[in-house]
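**Protein record**
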Amino acid sequence: MARWPSFAFLLSPIVSKHSICTKGVESIFNSNRFQRLASAPLKSTVISSDKDGEVATLLDRNDVEFEVGCIVRVNSSNYKAHHVSKKGFGYFNEDKEFVLSLDVAERGKKCLSIPEGLRGAVTRVYDINTLGTNFPIRVKFIKGENDEEGYASPLTFTMHFEKNEVDVVV
């Protein structure tokens, strides 16, 4: 009969570290910041109350409300997505065609240069009063979709924006 090796020597340090970690985790759960985040409603649109108790919403530059599922367009060409994969490193030329950056040795070329007019769908709008997010609008750009202005996303990726960086189209 085969005898399995004993791993008891591995458990003793884990148990002692686990008891230390448990105390640290309990203090995190009891903190005011965690309690505030845990009690925040998980809504897909921003609906929050201001000082008077009235409902306030997140609006773009043209006073159109951001909602989940609406199509938005980027209103400036100053944005770069550094978090995309290598097949998305590049830029759009004058003919609105994507040009892949073959030389990605430089930091400035290890990104996707987002053109003005690239369109995507809003997947979530965070409540800025409850969570205090810097970029409350999460937009998903899907490869081959929303290319009405001629810019087709070379890959699917998600990016966060401020309310003044994108405009609601539909």
Q: What stands out?
A: Confidence is low (pLDDT under 50) at residues 8-25, 32-50. The first helix runs from residue 8 to 29. The two ends are 70 Å apart (CA to CA).
